[in-house]
Amino acid sequence: MDFALDSTQTSLVDALRRYLEAEVAPMVEQCEAARTPVPRSMVAAMRHYGLIGGLLPEAQGGFGLSMTTYGALVAEVARVWPSLRGMLSVSNLAASALAGAGSAALREKYLPRILSGEALCCFALSEPGIGSDAANVETRAERTADGWRINGRKIYITNGPICDLGIVFVNTPSGDGRRGVSCLVFEKSMPGVSCTPLEKMGMHCSPLGELLFDNVEVPAGNLVGDIGGGFAIAKRYLNIGRSVVGFAALGIAQAALDAAVRFAGERVQFGRPIGSFQLVQQMIADMMTQVETARLLCYRAADALDRDDPANRTLCPMAKRYASDIALRVAELSLQVHGGAGYTTLFPVERYYRDARHLSIGEGTNQILSLVIAQETLGLSALR
């Protein structure tokens, strides 16, 4: 087994790292403090590094990257600015659903705008009363003469306040009178679409919101896939999404570890750097071990996706669950190494802690993923 990135992958990661350090890192703390969204020009610039449409085939305007390569790039972005990573990942998720299940007309209409960075997307699934139980969404879409009329609310929607368009999952009637989940493309400019921004603990530059659909008229051609096939579309990309979150957590954990090592070498107490004290060394050793364990599991899951190995059904939730738990733990230990300074905004470690916190919730709570892992292993019907 080769645990090293090849020369092409290394070149991609190195180029991205140089850009992030030179153009992105200097503005992160100022933007986060002001809670201003990541500049759209910076989101669009990620196209040049394979981070918009990276997983889509070249024939559809993507880069055809492997999950392993894409994950390495995601970790780099998250290491520098998790808010930027969040905005990119959600827009890519919507693009993947559109590319994988949308009609040729839909792809021709929307994909070029998304993949060029011109249009930012959201993925509207969660609702005030629906989170993990995504098969029972309450937002409804009724048939009209020309398409669909949507009514309902979606909540905790990344990019909601600033998106140009999105994928929304709705409850629709089927031919036999039963209802199922369907997937529709909507544009933010459509009459009846509004969004209320939500304040959150971390990732202040990645806007979150509650979307309201009030008699929103959507053309019939904006149906993605089949009527009642929306939940299958959502499930199709769950493991990819979990793998992405795992790499995002890895990036934050790496940033927190790097900060702790740097501070332990610079901070002097009792006449010597605090890194010379065994209890600080113990924390550094624990952090290093946890980060490297998360890294191995993330790459193992990505490799399973690349090879279409059925083991990805357990490895991806395992990687997401472990890496997101570790990101929070490593950020906490890094904050402890920083002492009182870590609890202030003088150092970015307090932001790492806040930015990492949501990762154990998004793309399936870690408690739900525990059920998925166990039930997949036991051969039971898993919640996935």
Low-confidence stretches: none
Q: Tell me the distance between the termini.
A: 29 Å
Largest sheet: 4 strands, mixed
| Strand composition percent | 15-25%
CATH level-3 fold name of the largest domain? Butyryl-CoA Dehydrogenase, subunit A, domain 3
Structural class by helix and strand composition: alpha+beta
Q: How many domains make up the 3D coordinates?
A: 3
Number of strands: 10
Descriptive overview:
51% of the residues lie in helices and 16% in strands. It folds into three domains: 7-115, Butyryl-Coa Dehydrogenase, subunit A, domain 1 (Orthogonal Bundle), CATH 1.10.540; 121-227, Butyryl-CoA Dehydrogenase, subunit A, domain 2, CATH 2.40.110; 237-378, Butyryl-CoA Dehydrogenase, subunit A, domain 3 (Up-down Bundle), CATH 1.20.140. The longest helix has 29 residues, at 238-266. It has helices at 7-34, 40-45, 67-80, 82-101, 104-115, 230-236, 238-266, 278-306, 312-338, 349-357, 366-378; strands at 121-124, 140-143, 147-158, 165-173, 179-187, 193-198, 208-219, 223-224, 268-269, 272-273. The chain is globular.
